[in-house]
Write a structure and sequence with these properties.
alpha+beta; six-stranded antiparallel beta sheet; 43% helix; elongated
């Protein structure tokens, strides 16, 4: 009878240790993918016109590395935003809920989809304006590029897993 109890106890201990191991690995993978999402997004194969690194930076700004960079500031209290001051010009890229907002150095504003396609463009007085998609994306890139360039290489690289999860989104 005692042999059965010790076998059952051994099975439970083994199952418990296995469960803890799987949960620990899952947590590590989740955290790794979140913290290093911008680095991985820089290296994911993607179709032209998509900007996975900018999108991942904004979606995971609470997780991603946001170093102190001269002329760059961050806002993460309710709305994630990156502000870049270049001389007297200021540009801001912000994310609130599902809406990306870009305020250009010229003062024009843009509401964007999650794929960075422009929904609406308006001037300082909130009148709709015509815009050049390439020019706006170039200015967005200039606003966030110092932060993207500062992303460290992951200690354990899970690029293959990131690609597997996000490949269809950026193609």
């Amino acid at each position: 009878m005692t042999m059965k109890k010790s076998n059952i106890l051994g099975i439970f201990v083994g199952l418990f240790l296995g469960l803890v191991t799987v949960l620990g690995m899952s947590l590590f993978i989740f955290i790794n993918l979140k913290f290093n999402s911008v680095y991985y997004a820089q290296h994911i194969p993607h179709k032209e016109g998509t900007e996975p690194d900018v999108i991942m930076l904004m979606e995971n700004m609470g997780w991603a590395y946001t170093p102190e960079i001269d002329g760059v500031s961050y806002d993460d209290d309710g709305m994630y935003a990156i502000t870049r001051n270049k001389g007297t010009k200021t540009s801001i890229l912000g994310l609130s809920g599902d809406t990306l907002y870009f305020s250009s150095a010229s003062g024009d504003g843009y509401l964007l989809n999650h794929d960075l396609s422009i929904q609406t463009a308006f001037d300082k007085r909130y009148h709709k304006i015509k815009y050049n998609q390439r020019k706006v994306l170039k200015e967005i890139r200039e606003t966030v590029q110092p932060v993207i360039d500062a992303q460290p290489k992951p200690l354990i690289n899970l690029q293959w897993l990131f690609n597997l999860i996000y490949q269809s989104r950026f193609n």
